[in-house]
Amino acid sequence: MSKRKRLGTLAATAASVPITLFGLVLVTFLIGRVMPIDPVLAIVGDRAPMDVVEQTRLELGLDRPLPVQFVIYVGKLLQGDLGRSVMTSHTVGADIRHFFPATLELATVAILIAALIGIPLGVLAAVKQGTRTDHIIRVLCLAGHSLPIFVLALLSLLVFYATLGWAPGPGRQDVVFDDMVPAVTNLLTVDALLAGDWEVFRDAVAHLLQPAGVLAYFSMAYIARMTRAFMLDSLSGEYVITARAKGLSAARVIWKHAFGNISVRLITVLALTYAGLLEGAVVTETVFSWPGLGLYLTVSLLNADMNAVLGATLVVGLTYLALNLFADAAYRLMDPRVK
Amino acid sequence: MLTRRSLLVASTATPFFSYAALAETPKDIIVIGKQIDDIISLDPQEAFEFTGGEVCGNCYQRLVVPDPANPSKIKGELAERWEVAPDGLSYTFHLKRDAKFASGKPVTAADAAFSLQRAVKLNKAPAFIVNQFGFTKDNVDGKIVAVDPYTLVLTIAEKQAPTFLFYCLSATVGSVVEKAVVMANAQGDDLGNGWLKTNSAGSGPFMLRSWKASESVILDPNPNARVPVKPKRVILRHIADPAAQLLQLQKGDIDIARDLQADQIKSVQGNPAFKITSAARSYIMYIALNQKHPELAKPQVRQAVKWAIDYAAIQKNITPTSWEVHQTFLPKGFPAAIDENPFHKDPAKAKALLAEAGLPNGFEITLDHASSQPQADIAQALQADLAAVGIKVALLSGESRQVVTKTRARQHQMALVSWGSDYFDPHSNAETFNINTDNSDNARNRTLAWRSAWQDKDLSDRAAANVKETDGEKRVIEYEKMQRDHQARSPFVLLLQSTEMAVMRKVVDGFEVAPMSARTIYEKISKT
């Protein structure tokens, strides 16, 4: 690819980011305004008298035409002002800094577990296609993908927390550790490490493992199935037959030649799965009382807290965009055909 | 034999296995599992939700409060005594001299005056409770005056029943905040509202340590509280899922579970490891029949709907522990409430009433209801009951605020909704369920009667007059009569009253839920 063409591709990619974000803000803004819930209700409640309702409507600028409201919102957005959430009384920026790290921590651990287990299982299932091992892995994956996640979450709590007593209950940490380490990154495990408090770190990890495990099982099922499908395709390729004919070891054929060729596609699968998890696993966060972005977004939406909904949606959109761009870049770097 | 593999497995599982040691909550810390995502502010002059009211009730004191032993009587909290002037307009409160804020400073009349003035000037949702005595931003500084450090004088615009004023002052909005602390944290002209949303400056048994939205509220004892506070810390943990609340209660991770559902409560009833406390809440569920609909505007149709419903079956089968049958506009436990439920399922009578209204074959109608439980199940039961008398109901399910938005705009036909009293005086519900002086779409006073486009001049006038009745006994008798007349004439099919049940571990003592959330106090909770 010529330098000029590469620059053109880069410019097109860069231009798509603000356009996508603008579209996201516009659509979310319009949905928020046409929802059959009066946003003033979220602030003043059902029992407020008319003068309070009208005063609040004026303060929110809801009396102005929709395009004017949108222009004002975008203007503030460009200055980094996401507004204030009525449900938490904080700025939406502060809320996102508080809630998103909780989701980031959960999703990152979940995707790591899912990838570390799901990829080898998928490879194994493909290599052992049609055998009992393959069937067991496929059943495991089918269960992971078809069982509703709230059932998995509650079952997990029932078994590991209530019955066996191996895991702590819902929440991010035990009550005795509340507010014990300063919030620097809002990633509790990282903050505990920064503070050098191993008790809090251990407690945070223990609380993290169960919800992350549930999410990981759900994601692992998808990753393993995709890995299996990619590997089956790859193992039937002529280059694999050639490698085998050359007398290479089975491990080398599988991991270097077959797996090496699917790694690019797997990156896309992993990136999109991770993006899905970062969007906020609402159900898991609800069952495990995990104060993450999904829970924040849902509660805000149900209460017509539109600044919060718009801010959280933007974060989700940005995350998707960033991971998509990452997957694109990985394609370009790793796939010689794209190069 | 300890192998490399078993060592690896053990080390991986360490965080899990060793966790059991921390299962029980510390003895001096009370952990309450509750859905706390309704809190939008902890500023007492703004908070108007159940959990916010409860937290403020524990952090602040008011001049007067209903006597817990007999809520129809008033007792002083910050006020030692009070006098009403012969003209019925001037109220003088003499403050106790031993009350102290968490900062250690004494509670003065200047703080009390500032707090009530602040409610009027901020004009947030609960401000009307104070404003209805004629206070405005312009006159409040002259109408609520601290004449000396321990004497406060309130001058109201017109003569009212004294108990009406006292009960209004006992609402969360009447909480006394520490003026110096609040104003030190004020931004612009917000009177400290931005700061007080997430902090406290009160003289109640507790002070707010932190509020993390949808996560936790932590309260520490006020070191200067008049009565020593038993718990060293109270933590309200947001546990949205009732099943998770039950699990955590059973494991000892929480001491009190506040949102268990009927089947979950049943599962612990009779189990000696748990105790249950309950109280009727001032929260009632009813069907609003919009009088703009020609069929619903017929008095016989309104009565037919009331006689078609199987109240007992709904209560028994759908809400056996969380709601009880209640058919009057004043909740049980309120002054002047009557315990009379005249309606029961009588399809023959309902059909006769429909025939009398010229609708022997019934009619078609819609019912808006919240998609959450128990409203969804109740709506289905209502649909079946009404179908039995010929009224074909189409159910319109929606998010609860969506249903409220629709009823506020008078766009519903029938709507299954709920109402919580604003303050502990009969006028709170008497006003909203009866008064409608302007039935036009642009009316200023949009009560529940207005939302259903219902105007009954007689009941509206009587509700407006009775709030001024200074003879307490006469006032009670009139409210009792009004409730009976309301049952016979109103377009409100009053169904159920909420019962709050809290389940606690057997080691927990001293916790009781109260009819008004602000009166659910934590100071006496202890663990043995």
Note the topology.
The complex is a heterodimer of chains A (339) and B (528).
Chain A: H1 3-34, H2 39-44, H3 50-60, H4 66-78, H5 92-127, H6 132-146, H7 149-163, H8 188-195, H9 198-235, H10 238-245, H11 250-278, H12 282-287, H13 293-302, H14 306-334
Chain B: H1 4-17, E1 29-34, H2 50-59, E2 64-67, E3 70-76, E4 79-84, E5 90-95, H3 109-122, H4 128-131, H5 140-143, E6 144-148, E7 151-155, H6 162-169, H7 179-184, H8 193-196, E8 206-212, E9 216-221, E10 233-238, H9 242-251, E11 256-257, H10 262-268, E12 274-289, H11 299-308, H12 311-317, E13 323-325, H13 347-356, E14 363-370, H14 375-387, E15 391-398, H15 400-408, E16 414-420, H16 426-434, H17 448-451, H18 457-466, H19 472-489, E17 492-505, E18 508-509, E19 526-527
Parallel strand pairs in B: 1-10, 1-11, 14-15, 14-16
Antiparallel strand pairs in B: 2-3, 4-5, 5-7, 6-7, 8-9, 9-10, 11-17, 12-16, 12-17, 13-17, 18-19
Helix pairs in contact in B: 11-13, 16-18, 18-19
Signal peptide (chain B): 1-20
Domain Solute-binding protein family (chain B): 73-440
Organism (chain B): Limobrevibacterium gyesilva
Question: What does the largest sheet of chain A look like?
Answer: none
Largest sheet of chain B: 11 strands, mixed
Rg of chain B, please? 25 Å
Q: Give the largest interface.
A: A-B, 60 and 60 residues
How many helices of chain B does DSSP assign? 19
CATH topology of the largest domain in chain B: the name is Dipeptide-binding Protein, domain 3
C-alpha termini separation of chain A = 7 Å
Q: What is the number of beta strands of chain B?
A: 19
State the helicity of chain B in percent bands. 25-40%
CATH homologous superfamily annotation of the largest domain in chain A: MetI-like
Secondary structure tally: strands of chain A: 0
Helix-strand category of chain A:
mainly alpha
Q: How many distinct folded domains of chain B? A: 2
> Which architecture name of the largest domain in chain A does CATH use?
Orthogonal Bundle
Radius of gyration of chain A, in angstroms, nearest whole number? 24 Å
Oligomer: heterodimer
